[in-house]
Amino acid sequence: MSRSVKVGRMMDALASTTENTLAIALIVGILLNFANVVGRYIGGFSIDGSDEIEIYILIWIAFLGGALVTWRGQHLRMDVLLETCPEKFRRIVVVLEAVLTGVVACFVAYQSWQYVSRIMALGAVSDIAHVPTWIPHSAVLVSFVLMTIVVGLRAWLTFARDKEKDA
């Protein structure tokens, strides 16, 4: 088995594990919401900061889900016209798309790093749950760093597989 196949399988396994972890996080958020509703209407109490924590869970799910979608190549595309083009032109568009995605992801990751660094230095915390605000904001940073890595890795895998076919 070639190295590119092993890396691809390892990344697929990592993506599946991440997806399962995000599903568990969603269930935790739903259970937290349910406990809060039951507490409010039956027990006469509420869980302080539960709404903030639920939102932070959803933020992480959305952004890490973006990295998963990037790995799987399942992002939304308008490629009906592209499918009618010659193979050589399609490959050029795919390469340009990968380069542009990588550049934008790097830019967003860098800007996010700057922001997260600042709010971490300030020691800012959320209003009710007192969660350090760098934690939810770092979802953007982590996600776009992962997207950058994924774009580079997918490009390497594509070229490695093309070399294997030619050999």
- Distance linking N and C termini: 15 Å
- What is the makeup of the main sheet? none
**Estimated share of beta-strand residues:** under 5%
- Uncertain regions spanning at least 5 consecutive residues: none
Arithmetic mean of pLDDT:
91
What's the number of domains? 1
Number of strands: 0
Specify the helix fraction band.
over 70%
The computed structural class is mainly alpha
Counting DSSP H or I runs of 4 or more residues, the number of helices is 5
In one word, what is the shape? elongated
Order of helices and strands: HHHHH
Taking all Cα atoms into account, the compactness measure Rg is 21 Å
Description:
- The protein is mostly helical and 167 residues long.
- It has one domain.
- Helices cover 82% and strands 0% of the residues.
- It contains 5 helices and no strands.
- The chain has helices spanning 3-43, 50-72, 80-83, 87-122, 134-166.
- Helix 1 (3-43) runs antiparallel to helix 5 (134-166) and helix 2 (50-72) packs parallel to helix 5.
- It is elongated and about 70 Å long.
Q: What keyword list fits this structure?
A:
elongated
Task: Please describe the topology of this protein.
Layout: H1 3-43, H2 50-72, H3 80-83, H4 87-122, H5 134-166
Helix pairs in contact: 1-2, 1-5, 2-5, 4-5
